[in-house]
Design a protein that fits this description.
- This protein is an alpha+beta fold and 608 residues long.
- The protein folds into 4 domains: 19-181, Jelly Rolls; 237-333, Phosphorylase Kinase, domain 1 (2-Layer Sandwich); 340-546, Transferase(Phosphotransferase), domain 1 (Orthogonal Bundle), CATH 1.10.510.10; 552-592, no CATH class.
- Helices cover 30% and strands 20% of the residues.
- The protein has a 6-stranded antiparallel β-sheet. A 6-stranded mixed β-sheet has the order 13-17-18-16-15-14, sandwiched between helices.
- Helix 7 (354-374) runs antiparallel to helix 9.
Length: 608
C-alpha cells in the first residue's frame, strides 16, 4: 500500500505462532514473535478493525496491526551502515473510547520499545500518548546501523490490563515500521518494480532471490558467531544485580568518530578518554581501558557492578559499558566544564569565585562521605586529586574514577596490591607502608582543599623557596597567624569566616596520624558550621618537621659548580686560610644530621 506520504509499505501478514520467525518476500524485513496469550481460546496475533483512525492522511494503514503477547521483533536486513531515522506508527484500535462509558473503555496497553538493543521508551501507552483511542501516533528515533542490520524490539513488561476487551488481550501493538537512511546510499536495494521482457524478469528473479537468501544466511551466521563468542561476557553481565546498558564496540567507535584524537579528553592510568555522541543524542565520555592495565574480565565485571550500585549527585554517572573480546570500555556522562585542575590551574575563561570554590569543597566532601559511609560496599577512592573532580554545567563537582578503586573489607586495614595514587596527594601511611583506609582519601581531600583556596598546585618550583611546597607554606602561615595570605590573589573578595574554617579543616585532614584526621561526614559538618572545630587538634605533621633539615649536599654542589676550572682548587675559609674542596666534603661527612625515630620507622617499616 502506498501511503499519502508517498512511501510504499510492504505487507507483513504472515500467520505467526507462539514462536515464529518469518522473512518478507522482498527479503528486506524479518519478524519474530514469542509468547502465548494467557487463557485465550482463539489467540490472534492480529488486530483488525474497520474504524478509521484520525490524525493520519492514510487511515487504511491502521486497520490492521500486529500484536504479540510477549516479545515482537522486526529486523531490517542488508542495510548499508550509517545513521537512520526509524518511524514507528501506532493506533489503539482494541479499546472502546472513554465516551462509551463502559468498562471496556478502561483498558490500558503498556510496553517497552528497544532499538538496537537499547531501551528508548519505557511503559509506552498508545492511547495516552495519542490522546485517545483510534488516533494515529508516530514516534521517530535516530539510530546508527553498524553491522548491516536493524533490530526493533517491542516487549510487554507485564503492565497494563490483561482482560479488556476480552480475556488474554495485552502486549505490544504496532501498525507500521519504516526506516530511512539519513545519507545517500551507495548500495542499491531491490527495486519496487521490475520492468522488461519475460526473460529479463526471470533472470533478475532467478539471480536476486538466491543471492538474497544466501546473504541473509551469511548475515545471521555472522550475528550468531559474534553473539556466541560474547556469550561468556554476556553471562557475567546478566548475573549482575545492577546491570548497566551495554554498547557495542562499533557503536562507540562511531560515536567517537573512530576514537579521533580531536575528541580525546585526556588520558589516565588505565587508558584514554574520548568525547562521543550516541545515536540518541547523548554526549558521553568513553573511557577506553588499556589491555596493558592487567585488568581481567572478572575484575572489570566487578568494577561495573560496583559503579552501577553507587548513585550520588556528586559522583560521575555511568551510562554503560562495552565488553567485546579483549576490549573494555566504560561510558560515563560528559561534563561540560571538565576537571577541577583545568579550572583552577589551566588557562581558560572559567572564573571560580569564592562561593563557587567553597561549594566545590563542601559537595566533594559529601561525595566522599557517601563512598566511605553510605554506599554498599564501602569504597576507598585511593586517588583523590583535582583532576579526578569534574565540573558540570552548573559547576557542581562530581568525583570520577571511583569505580577503579579497590573495595576493602571492614576487618582489613592493609592491602597487598600495588599502591595506586598520585604523588603529592598520597597519605604518608599509604605511600610508605601501603596502609589503606578511608583516611587516605581524607588526606587527599585536605590537599585539594588547599589547592582550591590558594589557586595553585601542591608543588610549584617556579615560586619562591618557602612557597614551593603548598603544605609547608600553609603550615608556616598558620603558625604565624597569617593563614589568609594563602588565598588566591585573583579572588576579589571572599568570606573570611568560611576561608578560615576551610583552612583549619584542610590542615586537620592532612595530619600525619590517620587517627587524628576526621571522617568525611564530620568534615561536611565542620564546613557547614554545624559543629565547631577544635584548634588544639591541629599540630604540624611530623612528616613536615622531620623532613625539614638543611640539605648540606646542596651547598656543597653549589660550591663545586662555582669552580670554573680544575686549577681553582683552593678557596679561603672564614679566617683567610686556604681550603680545598676535599675539606668541604669532610665538613659534609662530619656534620650531624638530625634523624628522628619516626623517620627510621618510616624507612624500615614493620621490621622488614
Amino acid at each position: 500500500m502506498r501511503g499519502n506520504d508517498g512511501i510504499l509499505y510492504e505487507a507483513e501478514n504472515e500467520t505467526l505462532g507462539a514462536a515464529t520467525f518469518h522473512v518478507t518476500s522482498t527479503q528486506k524485513w524479518a519478524v519474530s514473535n514469542t509468547g502465548m496469550f494467557s487463557e485465550r481460546n482463539s489467540p490472534s496475533y492480529f488486530q483488525n478493525t474497520l474504524a478509521q483512525a484520525t490524525g493520519t492522511s492514510t487511515p487504511e494503514l491502521f486497520q490492521t496491526a500486529r500484536m504479540s503477547p510477549g516479545s515482537l521483533r522486526y529486523y531490517g536486513l542488508g542495510l548499508q551502515n550509517g545513521p537512520y531515522t526509524v518511524t514507528l506508527q501506532f493506533s489503539e484500535t482494541g479499546f472502546d473510547p472513554l465516551s462509551s462509558q463502559t468498562w471496556k473503555s478502561l483498558g490500558r496497553r503498556m510496553f517497552d520499545i528497544y532499538i538496537q538493543g537499547h531501551r528508548r521508551l519505557t511503559d509506552f501507552d498508545i492511547s495516552k500518548e495519542a490522546g485517545g483511542v483510534q488516533r494515529a501516533i508516530a514516534r521517530e528515533f535516530k539510530v546508527n546501523v553498524s553491522e548491516n542490520y536493524l533490530e526493533i524490539h517491542l516487549v510487554w513488561a507485564g503492565k497494563g490490563t490483561c482482560c479488556i476487551p476480552v480475556q488474554g488481550y495485552y502486549g505490544p501493538l504496532i501498525a507500521t515500521v519504516h526506516a530511512a537512511s539519513d545519507f545517500t546510499p551507495t548500495v542499491s536495494g531491490i527495486p519496487e518494480s521490475i520492468q522488461g521482457d519475460e526473460n529479463r524478469t526471470g533472470l533478475i528473479i532467478g539471480i536476486t532471490v538466491p543471492v538474497a537468501i544466501l546473504s541473509l544466511v551469511l548475515v545471521f551466521a555472522v550475528i550468531y558467531i559474534r553473539r556466541k563468542k560474547d556469550d561468556d561476557d554476556d553471562e557475567e553481565l546478566l548475573g549482575l544485580a545492577s546491570r548497566p546498558d551495554t554498547f557495542s564496540y562499533a557503536e562507540l567507535r562511531a560515536a567517537t568518530d573512530d576514537f579521533n584524537s580531536l575528541n580525546k579528553l585526556g588520558e589516565g592510568g588505565f587508558g584514554p578518554v574520548y568525547k562521543g555522541t550516541l545515536t540518541d543524542g547523548r554526549v558521553v565520555a568513553v573511557k577506553q581501558l588499556s589491555v596493558a592495565s592487567n585488568q581481567g574480565k572478572s575484575q572489570f565485571v566487578t568494577e561495573i557492578a560496583t559503579i552501577s550500585a553507587v548513585r550520588h549527585r556528586n559522583l560521575v554517572k555511568l551510562y554503560g559499558c562495552c565488553i567485546e573480546g579483549n576490549r573494555r570500555m566504560l561510558v560515563y556522562e560528559y561534563l561540560e566544564n571538565k576537571s577541577l585542575d583545568q579550572a583552577i590551574f589551566g588557562n581558560n575563561d572559567l572564573l571560580l569565585d569564592w562561593p563557587t570554590r567553597f561549594n566545590i569543597c563542601v559537595e566533594t566532601a559529601k561525595g566522599l562521605a557517601y563512598l566511605h559511609e553510605e554506599s554498599r560496599p564501602r569504597i576507598v577512592h585511593r586517588d583523590i586529586k583535582a583532576s579526578n573532580i569534574l565540573l558540570d554545567a552548573d559547576l557542581c563537582p562530581k568525583i570520577s574514577d571511583f569505580g577503579l578503586a579497590k573495595l576493602y573489607d571492614d576487618k582489613k586495614t592493609h592491602i597487598s596490591t600495588r599502591v595506586a595514587g598520585t604523588i603529592g596527594y598520597l597519605a604518608p601511611e599509604y605511600a610508605m607502608r601501603g596502609h589503606l583506609t578511608e583516611k587516605a582519601d581524607v588526606f587527599g581531600f585536605g590537599v585539594v582543599a588547599l589547592e582550591i583556596l590558594s589557586g595553585r598546585s601542591n608543588a610549584d618550583s617556579s615560586l619562591e623557596n618557602e612557597k614551593i611546597y603548598l603544605l609547608d607554606w600553609a603550615w608556616n602561615l598558620y603558625e604565624n597567624n597569617r593563614s589568609l595570605e594563602l588565598m588566591d590573589p585573583t579572588l576579589s573578595e571572599f568570606d573570611t569566616n568560611e576561608a578560615t574554617r576551610l583552612i583549619g579543616v584542610a590542615l586537620l585532614c592532612i595530619q600525619a596520624s590517620p587517627m587524628v584526621r576526621p571522617p568525611m561526614s564530620r568534615v561536611v559538618a565542620m564546613l557547614a558550621g554545624d559543629i565547631e572545630m577544635s584548634s588544639t587538634a591541629i599540630s604540624k605533621p611530623s612528616y613536615l618537621t622531620d623532613w625539614n633539615f638543611n640539605d648540606l649536599t646542596s651547598s656543597f654542589l653549589s660550591e663545586n659548580d662555582e669552580t670554573p676550572t680544575a686549577s681553582k682548587s683552593h678557596e679561603k675559609d672564614e679566617h683567610g686560610n686556604a681550603t680545598s674542596h676535599s675539606s668541604a666534603i669532610d665538613r659534609l661527612l662530619q656534620s650531624p644530621i638530625n634523624v628522628s625515630e619516626s623517620m627510621i620507622s618510616d624507612v624500615i617499616g614493620d621490621g622488614r
